[in-house]
Amino acid sequence: MLGVLLLAFSLVTIAHSEFCRPDAQNAFKVRLSIKTALGDNAYAWDASEEYLFKAMVAFAMRRYSNKETTQISNVLLCNMTERVSFWFVVTDSAKNVTTVPGSEVEAAIRMNRNRINSAFLLTDDTLQFLKISSTLSPPIESAVPVWLIVFSVVLCLVVAGILFLVVSGIRQRKKNNSESAETGDLEDKCDTPVTTENGIPCDILDLKAGQINGVYAADDEWFTPL
Fold first, then answer.
1. C-alpha 197: how far from chain center
2. What pLDDT score was predicted for residue 55?
3. 216 vs 147: CA distance, rounded Å
4. Average per-residue pLDDT in the chain?
5. Cα–Cα distance between 12 and 18 in angstroms, integer?
6. Which residue has the higher pLDDT, 220 or 155?
């Protein structure tokens, strides 16, 4: 009886080693950067952490397929390195001699990626499933509707345009008034008559008080003694 049990155990071990090996069918490689992510608060990767990883993968498979048949024992780890990298594979709980298709495992990991990351206090960059693309963060919904933002921008542009037109009109009006005043002064100067006598400009005579031309006054003095 003991021999049968040992034989069965050895067969299972051989089967598991055949399932879980680098680049095996439906196998995935994992790399963790705990020190990079947590610094001085980094924890050691040990058997308990391995158990937790198996539990999280089993949880992801059960949640994805809505089946409660996947157990922690169905998650196999192999090729563990000190820099915390390893391969894992999920065996079929019904047959236990085949592995779950890689597409199903990938879909389950992607569906529960945030839960797995949170369990190890890591992110997509520090907990890497090398054959599984990183999950995309859900789009951030703005508290303000997009149409309201567009309307506000257009309204600001319209108001700025109106203010520009008003200011430009006021400045142009002041400029026109200034030019009109200068033109009026020039016209007044041009309308003022300039009196010339013998080719010499003379001042405007004051018609009320009168003005004596010095040339004729001198002639009168010459003839007075006669």
1. 86
2. 96
3. 94
4. 78
5. 10
6. 155
Read off the pLDDT band of 17 (50, 70, 90). low
What is the rounded average pLDDT of the residues 112-139? Answer: 84
Residues with Cβ within 8 Å of residue 59, at least 6 apart in sequence: 112, 115
SS (H, E, C) the chain: CHHHHHHHHHHHHHHHHHHCCCCCCCCEEEEECHHHHHHHHCCCCCHHHHHHHHHHHHHHHHHHHCCCCCCHHHEEEECCCCCCEEEEEEECCCCCCCECCHHHHHHHHHHCHHHHHHHCCCCCCCEEECCCCCCCCCCCCCCCCHHHHHHHHHHHHHHHHHHHHHHHHHHHHHHHHHHHHHHHHHHHHHHCCCEEECCEEECCCCCCCCCCCHHHHHHHHHHCCC
Q: What is the pLDDT of residue 171?
A: 87
Q: Which of 176, 182, 215, 185 lies closest to 198, judged by CA?
A: 215
Instruction: Say which residue the tokens 């049990």 belong to.
Output: 5
- Choice between 131 and 101, residue whose per-residue pLDDT is larger: 101
Q: How buried is 65 (Cβ within 10 angstroms: 0-12 exposed, 13-18 middle, 19+ buried)?
A: middle
